[in-house]
Amino acid sequence: MAESPETPANIPHTLNGEELESGLLYAVLTYRGELASWNWAFFLPNPAIHPIGTAGTIFHVVDTDSAGLWKFEVESRDVISSPLVVAILRLANVGFLGEYDDVVGDDSLLQMFKTVAIPTQMSTEFSSRTWFLEAICVLHDCGVVQCDDAWLLEREIRRCAFTAMDKYLENKGWTAYRAEHCS
After folding, report:
1. Residue 57: helix, strand or coil by DSSP?
2. Which of 22, 28, 58, 102 could form an SS bridge with 98, CB 3.0 to 4.6 Å?
3. Cα-Cα-Cα-Cα dihedral sign, residues 150, 151, 156, 158
4. What percent of the chain has pLDDT over 70?
5. Number of neighbours of residue 119 by Cβ within 10 angstroms
6. For residue 6, what is the DSSP state?
7. How far lies 168's CA from each of 3, 129, 156, 157, 172, in Å?
8. CA distances (Å), 155 to each of 10, 158, 159, in order?
């Protein structure tokens, strides 16, 4: 994105609208009850349900019973109406992988996400954020996304979430962004 007085480089690029776009993979950060801590997940909206984003598939890891034991989950979810969503970032167009049911099915994204290692014993180092970043690297290696630097993407996503928190804490919902470090 070119720098201009209206869009300096340190301001995240927000997206307009109350609905997402079909065929795009999104990062979704949800509120965990702490100002600077979010649950990180991937979301692919179902294009058959309007408005786009009211239904779709979320891929994430969850801490079972807050005991430090994590598991991978795939769920159908309404993201745009969720009261816990803080920020949504458009990551990449995954339409080339096929129709929605194919992309979220057993032979596409699901298989890639399942290759990301999850500790089998309690771990204080592992989180939904670390899983998400490892998954980005897998998606990059498989040619699904172009992300040359997961660390820069992490910084960008965190900056967007921090920026979105003001609106979220005023009960004004989520904010959507376009990721600059992933396509």
Report:
1. strand
2. 102
3. positive
4. 92
5. 14
6. S
7. 27, 20, 18, 15, 5
8. 11, 5, 6
